[in-house]
Automatic annotation (TrEMBL):
It comes from Novosphingobium pokkalii. The keyword Transcription applies. The lineage of its organism: Bacteria, Pseudomonadati, Pseudomonadota, Alphaproteobacteria, Sphingomonadales. The keyword Nucleotidyltransferase does not apply. Residues 1-27 are annotated as: Disordered. This is Transcriptional regulator BetI. PANTHER family: HTH-TYPE TRANSCRIPTIONAL REGULATOR RUTR, TRANSCRIPTIONAL REGULATOR-RELATED. Residues 26-86 form the HTH tetR-type domain. Residues 49-68 bind DNA. InterPro entries: BetI_C, Homeodomain-like_sf, HTH-type_TetR-like_transc_reg, HTH_TetR, Tet_transcr_reg_TetR-rel_C_sf. Keywords: DNA-binding, Repressor, Transcription, Transcription regulation. Pfam families: TetR_C_6, TetR_N.
Length: 214
């Protein structure tokens, strides 16, 4: 038999507690963009300074400079983020619609009358962006690109719904103008009419544009 080991055993040292991880760069960048959205909605473009956005995000102004070259770059990135958010909402509405050309078109158009697109805070953010179109070339380019992208997607859906090729451009411009007007009034004065009424108006107009094609 082996003799019992009588040597004193070393006490097991507890592992040090894990240090809290610093926010990942992408998460920190995203938090600054979301803070910029809130500041733009609340204070407009004139109130959207590096200091104000840093305070909203709970970080130092220097950290904003670490991720963005300046306030113009941050606002431009925020504009891109907001447009992507709207695009995702439109894509989700089309994906959830019945697989019929007219139903997909109507889903794309009427999605602008419900959340997350139709809400006063988002309108206030857009107004801040629009106020910079005439003074910020980058914002002007983004506005043109985003409008062209929306119209191109709408033209494709109108084509699938039976609108003649020669009429597509004017039809897309007309539908976009109708959607923008209804969306604006819904956000400014939601008590005037409901999202359901806005949808009904839009669908009736689409009926005339598509010539009764289902």
């Amino acid at each position: 038999m082996q003799a019992a080991d009588t040597r004193p055993k070393r006490a097991t040292q507890p592992r040090p507690a894990a240090l809290p991880r610093r926010a990942e760069p992408d998460a920190r960048r995203q938090s600054l963009i979301e803070a910029a959205m809130r500041v733009l909605a609340r204070a407009g473009a004139n109130g959207a300074s590096v200091r104000a956005i840093a305070q909203e995000a709970g970080v130092s102004p220097g950290l904003v400079g670490h991720y963005f070259t300046g306030i113009d770059a941050l606002i431009a990135e925020t504009y891109t983020h907001v447009d992507a958010m709207v695009t995702r909402a439109l894509d989700a509405a089309v994906a959830a619609a019945p697989p019929l050309p007219r139903a997909r078109l109507e889903a794309f158009v009427t999605a602008s009358f419900t959340a997350p697109i139709a809400q006063p805070a988002l309108l206030a953010t857009w107004i801040a962006f629009w106020s910079l179109v005439t003074s910020q070339p980058q914002i002007a380019r983004q506005h043109d690109e985003q409008y062209a992208g929306y119209r191109a997607r709408l033209e494709g859906l109108l084509r699938e719904a039976g609108v003649a090729e020669a009429d597509l451009r004017h039809a897309a411009i007309a539908v976009t103008a109708l959607v923008d007007g209804l969306w604006l009034e819904l956000c400014l004065s939601p008590q005037c009419f409901s999202s359901e009424e806005a949808g009904a108006i839009a669908r009736r107009f689409l009926g005339t544009v598509c010539g009764g094609v289902a």
